[in-house]
């Protein structure tokens, strides 16, 4: 038996990959466990854009993410990512172009008519996609239940796969928290069909369409383990960047705010750590939905190999 | 000497905006810096993990009050920094303008007075204004940190003559160019002008390769300092031939 601890993006991807290889797996959700921070994610499947700051390993891990999610029931919108900058920060665009691959220069208004005339030029990452992370996780969970995987709050048995994010910090001394804050807006006046990133020297932000006029706006990055709700500063920064992207965001309803702690290793690369008593699937940082599928498949392949002699005998 | 501390490296490094703490650690090592600065206003006391990474670098920590817009905020942040890092050093920033991040000179002097009286070793982020510099020294500051250009702008030394005048006006006060440095040549220039050190962040943190850029800045700062000590030749109005032309033998 393999017990997966935690039902955020890491836990559900791990359980899925293990169950699909025929391994006996269960998912443990202790009753006092905090809500998974995955629910606050942007749901961008944007390996090339992340490559601006993320190492090549993350870009590689994320290459197959959109396909994986789509083949696991998620509604993946393959609309690419549009990156723009206010006129006075145009140099940021050149820097971003230099630091990334897989893009073309475009007229932003040609791709997103609502942005026509607002930005002279933009970068288009045609190979990227986005999805609703909550819907994707709900779908994954339903598939696991259909496959007969049990979810319960009892004790773990057998091999433990620890996918508890920041809660695993006592076991992982080099894990740190990077606080992130996000907003959900209802802005029926704005029509954007793809993820748009607005570059800014201090407050970069992205807007991900959720459908029905809803937009997720994220996200701050603060080197802090401070829990609690979003700060006024975060809301001001995120709203002002959204407003810079399109002034009609000022009329939006602020439907939801969220703050969570991203678990991160010192190199900010999600990883599997093989401990003496359990395997840690952690350090997802801002790459949970991008990197979890690849890590889950790697984990499952490793465990399948280890158990293979027993199966064949 | 910075409050009695002699530093081998005259490059001070900020710690924000790096791709990861691992890259930051490598950049610190490549820069050879002995002083790193860290902000606290937004992170608060819960940023222990990041602070630990900084402490492990072996560098002296110069906490800063970045993000503070009033003297009171800056004073509170400085006191918190003293507790968290166990240091009396504080880089005092009181921002007067949210967009240009220009210091508020009045609040800066007010906060410097309070903090110096409490025994802090204050490194004020200031402009090249001479009167303001005098007021800060009078308040108890033994180091001044004039800007080269607005924070994060990478515009280099925007007012060379003003900075030159400041250097001449405060011959015995250590002066550190803080903010605005974009290229290693800017840093070298600052050192050639006789400044005691440079402090920078974005130019390294947001380079495509922060570690290589940190090494480049280390060399530029060293070169500028060495050149200043060696005695730069004065600028001349005309090209000066190095051998006399008049009176040489005509052999044709």
From TrEMBL, chain A:
Gene3D superfamilies xref list: D-Amino Acid Oxidase, subunit A, domain 2, FAD/NAD(P)-binding domain
Domain FAD dependent oxidoreductase: residue ranges: 3-301
GO molecular function, one term: oxidoreductase activity
InterPro entries the UniProt entry points to: FAD-dep_OxRdtase, FAD/NAD-bd_sf
A GO cellular component annotation in the UniProt record: cytoplasm
Pfam family, one: DAO
Keyword terms of this UniProt record: Oxidoreductase
PANTHER family reported for this sequence: GLYCINE OXIDASE, SARCOSINE DEHYDROGENASE-RELATED
The protein's name in its UniProt record: Glycine oxidase
Protein source organism: Ruegeria intermedia
Organism lineage string: Bacteria, Pseudomonadati, Pseudomonadota, Alphaproteobacteria, Rhodobacterales
UniProtKB/TrEMBL annotation, chain B:
Gene Ontology cellular-component annotations: cytoplasm
PANTHER family per the UniProt record, alphabetical: THIAZOLE SYNTHASE
Binding-site positions, 1-deoxy-D-xylulose 5-phosphate: 152, 179-180, 201-202
Described purpose of this protein according to its UniProt entry: Catalyzes the rearrangement of 1-deoxy-D-xylulose 5-phosphate (DXP) to produce the thiazole phosphate moiety of thiamine. Sulfur is provided by the thiocarboxylate moiety of the carrier protein ThiS. In vitro, sulfur can be provided by H(2)S.
Domain Thiazole synthase ThiG: 3-244
Protein name: Thiazole synthase
GO MF annotation: an example: thiazole synthase activity
Assembly and interaction partners: Homotetramer. Forms heterodimers with either ThiH or ThiS.
Gene: thiG
The keyword Transferase appears for this protein: yes
Catalyzed reactions: [ThiS sulfur-carrier protein]-C-terminal-Gly-aminoethanethioate + 2-iminoacetate + 1-deoxy-D-xylulose 5-phosphate = [ThiS sulfur-carrier protein]-C-terminal Gly-Gly + 2-[(2R,5Z)-2-carboxy-4-methylthiazol-5(2H)-ylidene]ethyl phosphate + 2 H2O + H(+)
Localization: Cytoplasm
Known pathway: Cofactor biosynthesis; thiamine diphosphate biosynthesis
